[in-house]
Amino acid sequence: MSETQKRTELYELGEFKLIDRLTEPFAPKQQETLKGVGDDAAVISCGKGECLVVTTDLLLEGIHFDLTYTPLKHLGYKAIVVNLSDVSAMNATPKQVTVSIGVSKRFCVEDLDELYSGIKLACDSYNVDLVGGDTSSSMTGMTISVTAIGSAKEDEIVYRSGAKVNDLICVTGNLGGAYMGLQLLEREKRIFLSNKAAKPKLEGYDYILERFLKPEVRRNVIENLRKAGVKPTSMIDVSDGLSSELLHICKNSNVGCRIYMDKIPIDEQTARMAEEFNIDMFTAALNGGEDYELLFTVPLSEYQVVDSMENVRVIGHIVEPHLGAYMIPPSGEDIRITAQGWNALQKE
Ligand code: ADP
Ligand code: MG
């Protein structure tokens, strides 16, 4: 490289700007490509108003998972679920997955049996077929890449871009649990590394551990919305934290938002663990990530339906774009929502 050539470090751009820069020249050429880069999954028309959605995620050992506290069976399950979550966030039904793995000599056949028993469990529990993949040796631990395919009618697809002023903002389940589960596992790992005789103390926190190790997709909410005849105006899954996902919806829909701090659903175990760690539980909910809940908007006229729906909480509403994105605390000044979510390309 010549001395005059500029070198930009990856962290200077960050994940989202990097993806924008790399994919900007790839405007879709095929008329079947209804949505390319920029949502939870791509949308491809099959004709007659039917379409497929496609999404892929890459999981790297040491970056996305730590095998000192993640059982391989759980890892296999989670690798499938995180992809089905993106399919569901398009309001589509997951149908098939492919699974590609890279494995170093550290792993034996029985280890991969374990991994695949988790993959099988997820495929059975969500009624999807494993239809292919790839297998390779690796120099650096384990790598798992899953691609998921789902189907939907074209007019059922929900994008990040459809939120309208006055729409209600809803979130499923509760937030911050997976992050606090991870903090607990990391703490027990540190204790174990400094004293190999120490037994991990995990009692009383089974729910948040499960939230991190074995997340689920809120398929029942998708089905209940469909049964009630409510089509969300926009939707995204919460993989990077509520703040980051809200800003995606605001940016893609060209709107602002107001959410109410006291409406954000937080489980009692999450709150307790946050207190023990001296972490603000709202920080965990807003920026923690990996909850795989669904964040969606519906017209104000659907208030009664969503307010009475199991596992759904109305947390705010959409406003004009110039009003920005703010969280309203019970007292004091409004707090601007900023994305401190997971940045895959942080400075070392
Ligand atoms: P999610 O968190 O929902 O999985 P991401 O933030 O990973 O979504 O990705 C955002 C969008 O960018 C998606 O449409 C994804 O397919 C696309 N994308 C991410 N990385 C790349 C890449 N290296 N090349 C092309 N498209 C990418
Ligand atoms: Mg997503």
Low-confidence region ranges: none
**Total DSSP helices:** 10
**Residue share in β-strands:** 25-35%
Q: Report the structural category.
A: alpha+beta
CATH architecture of the largest domain: Alpha-Beta Complex
Number of strands: 13
Biggest beta sheet attributes: 7 strands, mixed
CATH homologous superfamily (4th level) name of the largest domain: PurM-like C-terminal domain
Secondary-structure topology with pairs:
Blueprint: H1 10-23, E1 33-35, E2 42-47, E3 50-60, H2 72-88, E4 93-103, H3 109-125, E5 129-137, E6 142-153, E7 168-172, H4 177-194, H5 206-213, H6 219-227, E8 234-238, H7 242-253, E9 256-260, H8 268-277, H9 281-287, E10 293-298, H10 303-307, E11 312-319, E12 325-328, E13 335-336
Parallel strand pairs: 4-5, 9-12
Antiparallel strand pairs: 1-2, 2-3, 3-6, 4-6, 7-10, 7-11, 8-10, 9-11, 12-13
Helix pairs in contact: 2-3, 4-5, 4-8
This protein binds adenosine-5'-diphosphate and magnesium ion (MG).
